[in-house]
Design goal:
Helix content is 71%, strand content 0%. With 79 residues, it is mainly alpha-helical. The protein has a single domain, classed as Orthogonal Bundle (Arc Repressor Mutant, subunit A), CATH 1.10.10. Helix 3 packs across helix 4. The protein is elongated, with a radius of gyration of 20 Å.
């Protein structure tokens, strides 16, 4: 159930802690408060789902080495 009138300032606080929420690094009370807000706030729910997808994409990304030409150029810049 979505509520039309809720404290949008809370959205900013939620946004700042989304990574902790996803990683399970919050205490139970903070987690439940965030879960309740996200359930009632479409914008926060979209932010959460977008961050989850981004994390999944990054975790499943193939790593590639740095090309030799770029390594050489970087070494010249540092020297």
């Amino acid at each position: 159930m979505r509520r039309k009138n809720h404290d949008h300032k809370k959205c900013v606080a939620i946004f700042k802690k989304l990574s902790e929420y996803i990683d399970g690094d919050l205490d139970e009370k903070a987690y439940e408060e965030m879960r309740s807000h996200i359930k009632a706030c479409v914008k926060c729910e979209v932010c959460l789902e977008t961050l989850k997808r981004t994390v999944d994409l990054c975790r499943n990304m193939k790593t590639r080495g740095v090309p030799d030409r770029l390594k050489a150029r970087l070494k010249l810049m540092v020297s």
